[in-house]
């Protein structure tokens, strides 16, 4: 039996990821080479798809560093594509390049991050080349090296020739994902399935039982029923509600599963939220999930990185969600 209602305490845990300024469809690209260098040697950085502001800028960072902890940097002076030469820092370690838009308005919000490179005194002179991977709208995967992107056309160097593909034909790009090995075929990129770790909601029954937090983590409600280990909204009326769940690793999403454990069949819309905060409706319709049961949607791999999902619900009574799982391809450095 449902216990007496308590006052609503809305628990909001917000996932912060970089918000881009003036980025075009999330397809700005940075490509650093070689992948292994010694301190003081030259690093070639190719960039493309930059916003085109005079004060767009690129800086080198130790991997994992943000904000003001950057090294050598350059303004792009309105260029949307081109090449820059950087000098490898004297301190050994892994480094990457960050692209920022329109300083100072864009602040330190990186809109694109390059593949990682390793700097060390004991590194040999023959670097290991890495694949860039391009997924086309047809489902085809092209592996090679991105040479340039002028805003409309990708120029890609494969093992046999240089090819060009139009922007509209490329739905996802993964930079520097796998070593090129001439004796072995390309290994397919491994997908990642993960449970939600952070959440916010339109309402929740209480800050403990039936709270929004109950929808994070692995499933722990095995039966259909009014059970406090799942999320339930404040009201048992027929008003629409929503639940936004964030994940630790942004992915190019391919699948979503939602464990419904009471009054199943309440979903009417699902949105993916990319790393720039933009919402994408990926499903809208009639939910026919049994109770308990898994609502499941499979989508073509998104061209954008998904950081969270928004579940829109509506039913007379208490809808309850136990767990949410997102599957997709993480970007590799």
TrEMBL record:
Pfam (any one): PAPPA
Domain Pappalysin-1 SD scarf: 190-330
Name of the protein in its database record: Pappalysin-1 SD scarf domain-containing protein
Taxonomic source organism: marine sediment metagenome
């Amino acid at each position: 039996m449902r216990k007496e209602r308590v006052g609503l305490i809305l628990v909001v845990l917000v996932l912060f990821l970089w918000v881009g300024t003036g980025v075009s469809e999330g397809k700005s690209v940075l490509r650093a080479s070689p992948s292994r260098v010694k301190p003081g040697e030259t690093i070639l950085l190719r960039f493309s798809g930059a916003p085109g502001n005079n004060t767009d800028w690129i800086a080198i960072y130790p991997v994992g560093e943000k904000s003001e902890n950057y090294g050598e940097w350059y303004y792009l002076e309105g260029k949307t594509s081109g090449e820059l030469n950087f000098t490898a820092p004297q301190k050994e370690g892994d480094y990457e390049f960050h692209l920022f838009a329109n300083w100072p308005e864009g602040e330190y919000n990186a809109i694109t991050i390059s593949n990682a490179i390793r700097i060390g005194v004991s590194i040999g002179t023959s670097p290991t080349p890495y694949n860039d991977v391009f997924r086309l709208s047809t489902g085809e995967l092209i592996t090679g090296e991105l040479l340039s992107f002028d805003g409309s056309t990708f120029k890609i160097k494969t093992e046999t020739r240089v090819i060009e593909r139009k922007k509209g034909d490329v739905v996802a790009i993964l930079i520097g994902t796998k070593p090129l090995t001439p004796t072995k075929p390309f290994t397919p990129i491994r997908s990642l399935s993960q449970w939600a770790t952070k959440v916010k909601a339109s309402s929740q029954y209480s800050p403990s039982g039936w709270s929004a937090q109950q929808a994070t983590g692995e499933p722990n409600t095995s039966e259909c029923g009014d059970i406090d280990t799942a999320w339930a909204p404040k009201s048992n009326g027929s008003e629409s509600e929503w639940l936004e769940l964030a994940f630790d690793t942004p992915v190019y999403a391919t699948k979503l599963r939602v464990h419904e454990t009471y009054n199943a069949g309440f979903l009417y819309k699902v949105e993916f939220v990319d790393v720039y905060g933009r919402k994408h409706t990926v499903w809208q319709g009639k939910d026919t999930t049994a109770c308990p049961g898994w609502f499941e949607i499979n989508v073509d791999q998104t061209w954008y990185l998904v950081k969270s999902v928004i579940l829109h619900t509506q039913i007379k009574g208490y809808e309850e969600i136990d767990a949410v799982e997102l599957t997709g391809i993480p970007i590799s450095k």
